[in-house]
Amino acid sequence: MGFFDGILGRSKPPQADLDVLFSVPQAVISMQLEGFVPTGSGSVCFRDMEGQADDAVMADAEQIITSSPGSTVARSDDRFGFHWLTVTRTDADVSGLVTDLHAVNSSLADAGFGTALLCSTFGFTSPAGRPVGLVYLYKRGTFYPFAPETDERRDNALELQLRGVIAGDVPVEPDLTKWLAIWGAPGLA
Length: 189
Description:
32% helix; alpha+beta; PspAB-like; 24% strand; 189 residues; 5 helices
């Protein structure tokens, strides 16, 4: 941060700690003990950057992921204009999924697109059979649960219950106003 940035109150966004994603398998074990089942699907959400350089990085990441057996990759855009790259593992191997999503995130960050990263999601099915997500916020370096219901409503009680389940395994976002509703996220609709 420069001198004028300090005077004007500007700050640099924090760097995302991508390695914290490797703590997700422990959180998954805790969630499984409570009846949540991993779907084998996870996504990376990012803003489009100018030009097509990020497209080339995404194509390289897709090639790396699909070179391992059992992984498929799909790209999509949501109604808010954000881009999603979704990885699905047929074996539902959480460690492999974490490695795949880490590769996507690292590829974007290493190519200079780290500020475009918004979140990563890991999909689950609740004991009641509904979709639930574990969401990692890059700019905060924290996780939170997201339990969508129909008509763009959330199951806040379930989200708070899950916060208690995963709190010892991953850094949980303490500010509930940062627990964003990611309507239409792949695997969570």
